[in-house]
Specification:
Largest sheet: 3 strands, antiparallel
Structural class: alpha+beta
Helix content: 25-40%
Strand content: 15-25%
Oligomer: single chain
Distance between the termini: 37 Å
Number of strands: 5
Strand order of the largest sheet: 4-3-5
Order of helices and strands: EEEEEHHH
Shape: globular
Length: 89
């Protein structure tokens, strides 16, 4: 029997992709927003494609705000953009 591949929806472009192709953004129990590279940390996760334009789209359409049911300050998006650049080097 074939193993089922976990699929997640990008909060930027709204496409469904396998978990391996995505970056996980995490809201910790302390309400911090961080990039979860391992995908195993505790907290509420939202997924983004590895392209930076998906992060920019999520910023514009408030995709992360909807996923985490909270407002997200611009500093957090700026931090995520820097982390994205690092992760994609």
């Amino acid at each position: 029997m074939a193993k089922k591949i976990p699929v997640r929806q990008c909060v930027g472009c709204m496409q469904m992709k396998s978990k391996k192709e995505m970056m996980r953004v995490l809201k910790t129990p302390e309400d911090e927003i961080v990039l979860d590279v391992t995908g195993k940390k505790n907290g509420r996760g939202a997924y983004l494609c590895k392209q930076k334009e998906c992060l920019l789209k999520a910023r514009k359409n408030k995709g992360l705000e909807r996923s985490f049911k909270m407002s997200i300050p611009n500093e957090v998006y700026d931090y995520l953009e820097k982390e994205f650049d690092k992760a994609n080097e």
